Amino acid sequence: MPTAPVPEGLAERVAAAQHVMVLTGAGISAESGVPTFREAQTGLWSRFRPEELATAEAFAEDPDTVWAWYEWRRDLVAAAGPNAGHAALAELERMLPRLTLVTQNVDGLHQRAGSPDPIEFHGNLFDNRCFDCGRPAPDVPRPCPALPRCEACGGWIRPGVVWFGEAIPTAALQRSFSAADDCDLFLSVGTSSLVYPAAGLAERAAACGAALVEINPAPTELARHAVCAWASPAGEALPVLVATLDGMRAVDREK
Ligand code: OAD
Questions:
Q1: CATH 3.40.50.2300 given to domain 10-33+82-122+168-254
Q2: Tell me: the pLDDT tens digits for 185-223?
Q3: Residue 122 a catalytic site member
Q4: To test the ligand 1 pocket, which listed residue (23, 31, 34, 38) has its Cβ within 8 A of the most ligand atoms?
Q5: For domain 35-79+127-161, which CATH number applies: 3.30.1600.10, 3.40.50.720, 3.40.50.10420, 3.40.50.1980?
Q6: Ligand 1 pocket, mutate which of 31, 36, 42, 121 (most atoms under 8 A from CB)
Q7: In three state form, how does the secondary structure of the chain look?
């Protein structure tokens, strides 16, 4: 089935932008085979909800189960690969004068697709640190089926992701909101726009005059405030956007 063309005026808007900000969510990794959060979980963990596992309380109560869930997710992501949507965003960053990429995802797929410095708003699945003393634990092997212990204090090692109720890493928070203040175009890609403070970035950008665009097969609440809601999978939409921009540049070069 032919891929839908870029919505009217969107490519021109991207080409004219001085600073594009992109916020991605689990939807951009869906085409890599990585389950999103709010779809029923598949496989071994279908009896749990992420909220029952992705909290400090759940880890304190049952660290082995929480560690095993993150090991399962690491195996899944390690076996997956970035898809055409991730690759198109990396290409877009090379094409445009300025693009700030913020991701809610912890899978590291943007880096593997070539994005040089994605802001990881919720941390990274492959970073580990001590639950008790906070020391980084870079030497945890992969895979590591048994819950590892901190070499310094003997505490449990936890994944370096942001759990529900935890603070966003300060640098990520500051860099993201200053980009939202400055950008003139904000692309929300593959997120349900439900979880704050990440979901507040689009609102902040719009309040500072940026135009909002959503790319999501199931338009969200954000779509009502967007100049364009492109109901398409990211793995189809983003490559078409990049190809269209390429075509526009070729025409300009011939003038
Ligand atoms: P969700 O699972 O809440 O939403 C995924 C979104 O992706 C949905 O709106 C889908 O319609 C959309 N989607 C599905 N397939 C897509 C595709 N091929 N292309 C584009 N979009 C697609 O995931 P997030 O919005 O990322 O937080 O969730 C935000 C946060 O909630 C996560 O970072 C996590 C979770 O709790 C923490 O862990 C702190």
A1: no
A2: 999 999 999 999 999 999 999 999 999 999 999 999 999
A3: yes
A4: 38
A5: 3.30.1600.10
A6: 36
A7: CCCCCCCCCHHHHHHHCCCEEEEECCHHHHCCCCCCCCCCCCHHHCCCCHHHHCCHHHHHHCHHHHHHHHHHHHHHHHHCCCCHHHHHHHHHHHHCCCEEEEECCCCCHHHHHCCCCCEECCEEEEEEEECCCCCECCCCCCCCCCCCECCCCCCEEEEEECCCCCCCCHHHHHHHHHHHHHCCEEEEECCCCCCCCCCHHHHHHHHCCCEEEEECCCCCHHHHHCCEEECCCHHHHHHHHHHHHHHHHHHHHHC
